[in-house]
Amino acid sequence: MKRKSNTKRLLLPDTLRGFLVIEMIVYHLLFDLYYMFNANIAWFAGQGMRLFQLSILSGFVLLSGFCFPMGKRKIFRAAQVFVCGLIIILVTVLVMPSQKILFGVLSCLGLCMLLMTALEKPLTKINPAFGFLLFALLGLLTYGVRSGYIGIFTHPLIELPDAWYTTSFLFPLGLKNANFRSSDYVPLLPWFFVFVCGFYLNKLVYKSEKALRVLPHGIKPLAVIGRYSLWIYMAHQPIIYGVLWLIFKLK
After folding, report:
1. Residue 86: which of 97, 76, 100 has the closest Cα?
2. Contact 198/66 with Cβ under 8 angstroms?
3. Gyration radius of the chain's alpha carbons
4. pLDDT tens for residues 188-215?
5. Is position 5 within any domain?
6. Which helix (DSSP H) or strand (DSSP E) does residue 205 occupy?
7. DSSP assigned state of 102
């Protein structure tokens, strides 16, 4: 089926993004309470919250890849997201060095989008179903790169050379040295592969008449949040921290 030109935004992707934004705000509220204000919520450091965080991140990256083919001014959008990531790096390093973010989700997404502007044409030539499975497998295999191995998700199969982790400039790939610290760390491996899975998911959806009928539908309040997710992301942490600081200061 030929892709129709969009004259308006599709509600479903924005609705899903809006839902993820709310989840992200909840997670960062709990993060600040636990790590910055020493709230008695020890369960936050448990495996359940780690999985919750992973599901939010996976959703954002997959959805960003899904929306990439539908976007206009792709290089401008990629640069915009990457620059926002640089602003977060600068602000956290200067204002909150103990919680600095050196390569977070916006830095990763910006680079993913820039890479896709160059790779979109050759990747489009691959069968979408095969491409989705291939890059999903690559994502699983490289999930442990930041921990020094190739494997199936958290199960190591091949240990990577220690020498790869001695530099101070390969951390965007997941090759971080022992001194690297980042409160939010989203390297290209495996997340670029998750982004590409979203790209192929878009291709699969646009081949399905039933799936296409669903895309225009959603929940408008969530869709509004999703539409402005970048600016909400930039603003939410300072607001959360400021409100919590006031609450704990006035106790």
Report:
1. 100
2. yes
3. 19
4. 999 999 999 999 999 999 998 888 899 9
5. no
6. helix 188-205
7. S
Distance CA 187, CA 170 (A): 10
pTM: predicted TM-score of the whole model, two decimal places: 0.93
Q: How far is CA 241 from the centre of its chain?
A: 21
Q: What are phi and psi of 227, to 5 degrees?
A: -65, -35
Q: How far is 163 from 165, CA to CA, in rounded Å?
A: 5
Residue at 1 is within a domain: no
Residue 10's pLDDT is: 86
Total number of domains in the chain = 1
Separation of alpha carbons 82 and 52, rounded Å? 25
Task: Please give the residue range of the domain that contains residue 207.
Answer: 11-250
Report the run of H or E that residue 91 belongs to, with start and end.
helix 74-95
Within a domain: residue 6?
no
Is 217 within a domain?
A: yes
User: Which positions ≥6 away from 70 have C-beta within 8 Å?
Assistant: 6, 10, 202
Which H or E run includes 244?
Answer: helix 229-250
